[in-house]
């Protein structure tokens, strides 16, 4: 019997903005400010935002672009399975031509042997 492997977990004591205990008014003002920041263009953000807000803005839009690219890639993969390429069935004449070609190839192989 072996010793079970140890499992590493993330520390639950790490502090993030989600763990902050803010009052409703403080949260409302932060939410409203972030709504304004999100609506800015890159040029407006570079000109108007503080360093921390600009970093948050750039990080947010980098994650958004990455997510959109992943979803586009996933959609193309899924569409390959939804609409498989269709191969037209052979006509009766094509089947006869293929059979005749096999017969000719077999006779040529027998004649040369």
End-to-end C-alpha gap: 66 Å
Query: Which structural class matches the secondary elements?
Result: mainly alpha
Radius of gyration: 32 Å
Identify low-pLDDT runs. Answer: none
Classify the helix fraction into a percent range.
55-70%
Could you report the average pLDDT, rounded to the nearest whole number?
83
Q: What's the helix count?
A: 4
Largest sheet: none
Number of strands: 0
Shape assignment = rod-shaped
Beta percentage is under 5%
Following the backbone from N to C, one meets helices and strands in this order, namely HHHH
Considering the chains and any ligands shown, give keywords for the structure.
mainly alpha; 113 residues; rod-shaped
Written account of the structure:
With 113 residues, the protein is mainly α. It is built from 4 helices and no strands. The chain is rod-shaped and about 95 Å long. The termini are far apart. The model has no long low-confidence stretch (mean pLDDT 83).
Element layout with pairings:
Blueprint (H helix, E strand, L loop, with lengths): L23 H15 L3 H7 L2 H32 L9 H21 L1
Brief overview:
Residues 1-10 have a biased composition (Polar residues). The protein is an all-alpha fold. Helix content is 66%, strand content 0%.
